[in-house]
Amino acid sequence: MSDNTNNHSQGFTIVELVIAVVVAGILVATLLTVTFTFYGNSIRNSTQSRLAVESQNILRTIVEELRVSSGVRSANTITDPNGPGGGWTTSNASLVLIISTPVMDSANQFVINPDTGDPYQNEIVYYATNKTLYKRYLASATAPGNQFKTSCPIALATATCPADVTLSRRFKDMTFVFYDQDDAVTTTLADARSVKMTIDMIQDAFGQTVEFTNNIRMTMRNSL
């Protein structure tokens, strides 16, 4: 009786190996594409959430300052030795907003000008350079006990002139529309009784540009 059993195992052919490699490559490429797409979307969503929070914080800061302020000025009245040559001007084109706010001392009490019976005024200037939004303080030099100090560009900051506050490095644009008592748009700041502020944020994330827009409208005291 003869044994016809074939004890030799047959291996993969070259064609089968090539097919297996191609299929594995397709599966890996698909998996990587799905993974990177999911990761990219997660990064962009996280970035947009960050821009939303940051823009909201900036708007809240401005709103709180406007609530206690005397109003918005068309130009600064306190000399800024580090300001632009012609001084600051509230303007959408140059991304500047000037807020006049009463001087307070270290006890958070108003510092009153005896000649007028009104508080002395400090000024806060919001301005942008490239994608960075800053806040500069201009302190009244004649107000005794003023808790404000005039601030300076970061490169020029000293112990006596602290650095401007950096609010955002993801800033794109800020616009503001003023309304009078009849709710009509006005360019005369003395007539403004409310303001709508719109801020645009921007940041690159995972090869794409992410943008976010936020806005708020509020009533102003405007007693200037």
Report on this model:
- With 224 residues, the protein is of the alpha+beta class.
- It has one domain.
- Helix content is 25%, strand content 29%.
- It has a five-stranded antiparallel beta sheet with strand order 1-2-3-4-5, covered by helices on one side. It has a four-stranded antiparallel beta sheet with strand order 7-6-8-9, covered by helices on one side.
- It is elongated.
- The N and C termini lie far apart (119 Å).
- The model has no long low-confidence stretch (mean pLDDT 90).
Number of domains: 1
Helical proportion, percent range: 10-25%
Radius of gyration: 30 Å
From the N-terminal CA to the C-terminal CA, the straight-line distance is: 119 Å
List keywords for this structure.
single chain, 224 residues, five-stranded antiparallel sheet, four-stranded antiparallel sheet
Topology:
Elements: H1 14-68, E1 71-73, E2 97-102, E3 121-129, E4 132-138, E5 165-168, E6 171-179, E7 185-186, E8 194-205, E9 208-219
Antiparallel strand pairs: 1-2, 2-3, 3-4, 4-5, 6-7, 6-8, 8-9
Quick gist of this model?
The chain has one helix spanning 14-68; strands at residues 71-73, 97-102, 121-129, 132-138, 165-168, 171-179, 185-186, 194-205, 208-219. The protein is α+β, with helices and mostly antiparallel strands.
